[in-house]
Description:
There is one protein chain. By secondary structure, the chain is an alpha/beta fold. About 35% of the residues lie in helices and about 20% in strands. The chain has 13 helices and 15 strands. The chain has helices at about 40-50, 95-100, 130-140, 145-175, 175-195, 200, 210-215, 230-240, 255-265, 310-315, 320-325, 325-330, 350-355; strands spanning about 15-20, 30-35, 55, 70, 75-80, 85, 110, 115-120, 125-130, 245-250, 270, 275-280, 285-290, 295-305, 360-365. The strands form four sheets. Strands 1-11-3-2-14-13-12 form a seven-stranded mixed β-sheet, sandwiched between helices. It has a three-stranded antiparallel β-sheet with strand order 6-10-7. Strands 9-8-15 form a three-stranded mixed β-sheet. The longest helix is centred in the middle third of the chain and has 29 residues, at about 145-175.
Amino acid sequence: PASPKEEPLSPVSPVGHLYHTFKGHETRYDAIVIGSGIGGLGVASLLTKAGKKVLVLERHYAIGGYTHSFQRKGYEWDVGLHYVGQVHIDGTPLNKVFRYISDENLKWTALDDIYDRAVFGTERFNFVRGRENLRKALKEYFPEAVDHTSIDKYFGLLDEVEEVGVSYYIEKVIPPFLSSIFGSFLRKNVLKYSDRTTLEVLKTITTNDRLIGVLTAQYGDYGLPPSKSSFYMHALLANHYMEGAGYPVGGAGSIARTVVPVIEKGGGQVLFYADVKQIIVQNNKALGVEMADGKKIYADTIISDAGVINTFGNLLPPEVIAEHKLKDLLKNLDPSAAHMGMYIGIKESAKDLKLPACNYWVFPAEYNHEV
Length: 371
């Protein structure tokens, strides 16, 4: 995080409590959540709704992880969130979840019907809301009959991935003994897509590199180019945005501003400047956390939203990491594509400038995302 001397206080920071005001370190919690990203806040709110007393610990000066906002010289920016699919449509699972964890206080506004624009040199391709609308638009961009067939096959693959994914997620929530019996069967239909790259699968339906380039123009959302990304991940993303996308009213910081009060109302706490040094493990069971200042806090359940590398490579005791050879396992994880963020302040409003509510994916006049 940036230095707190650099005008860091965001609208989110006052939500929750500073760690140095924490008086409950001798209190036992039902669950401790490390990290206040959307995963951490989401699970903390769900546990609170289930009657659990939860403590959320965030080392940053602001709550929210990649959903927090910050201010500089009168401007306010979000650090990561730019759009979320399905949340703006009443009745979808994500819409229900966000309403539930925020006590109905988090509101969303829909982006334009054209939610993504892919620009390759001077050519522009609009991703329009609605499955059939997008299929029609793609066929207008690619009028050849052979491309129409490829586009239909592509949407057929997206439909199939959506169908087979249900059994995969069922396997994740059934008891371990049932998973040992039925797991391979429940996973197999997903693995045939997840274990193949996006480029490999698309090459089976078309030889048109220009079409492949357009179909994968949103690859920045999942961080890997087509030759390295899992087709299952690509299909999840494409299906996720098929009906457009939404953005939280009041900016990304509204997520923490509406979810944290739910946790605190249920007797929990959300602390920032709370640096966890290590997870306390005894007899192969996580029992609590040791803070950077030496305080120890205990709970029945320890949940980490600090990322797989930090959790299994840094937060667990060295002897546990060595015993389970976690460092070796982590070497098998390839990093996603590197990126750099630039935040720009504009004095005029989006309305005055007539800016569309959409994302732009801008590329050179080259449809090969590998170069």
